Amino acid sequence: MSxxxxxxxxxxxETHGRGPxxxxxTGAPGVADVYRAVTQxxxxxxxxxxxxxxxxxxxxxxxxxxxxxxxxxxxxxxxRLIEHLGAGPAIVFGASSGAVVGLELLARHPxxxxxxxxxxxxxxxxxxxxxxxxxxxxxVYDLHRRSGPEPAMTLFRERTFAPYDHRYMAxxxxxxxxxxxxxxxxxxxxxxxxxxxxxxxxHAGRVTPAVGRESRGxxxxxxxxALGMRLGRDVxxxxxxxxxxxxxxxxxxxxxxxxx
Length: 260
Fold this sequence. Notes:
Blueprint: E1 2-6, E2 9-17, E3 21-25, H1 36-39, E4 47-51, E5 60-61, H2 70-85, E6 90-95, H3 97-108, E7 113-119, H4 130-147, H5 149-160, H6 163-170, H7 176-185, H8 197-202, E8 210-212, H9 219-231, E9 236-238, H10 244-247, H11 249-259
């Protein structure tokens, strides 16, 4: 077990393999374990770093938190971890809201990133019906407050993601504390977070937006395509859906390496 002290938290992290640094940033549920399967297929090429984002599981909060700047803080945590490992700039892969963190990291700390692969970031403000999705995420949050995490996650899963993903998501290990933290501080905040498109465009050559081919027609796929258009970048289509790195890890890892 390794930890890194950062302002306001202690980050749990792991490293595996040898080679250039490849940092994986998780979305929900915020823990390194979601990348367990894909990591073993990347270590032949890279030093893979995975971590629990602050507030989730083993990355404990210490003192007061500025939740109005949580995305900025998440990006700064990733930057500090890359610097701590001393092998940057890093290849950075972020999935879902972890991809939003990766985009914020590139905009604020471009020297930390060699290549960024934002995988299905829920940047729904880039969609023509983006406001509809923002309202829907607020409705899911309200359902969570009324009825608890299970019905809220079911509604969120069935409306937002492809059927390909539903079984894997439904059978994911349950952690009510992580779910509550995500509902409270991320579901409503990260999808509509403003992107610094000017800063991202200045470093667009480092960005490879990516999607799961089974996600076509669903909001995170379409938002990623919109992001690629804004940055003038082709979008890589990888095996599986929103969580292809879990459901189809060997093929996903092979395609991810090829996309680099």
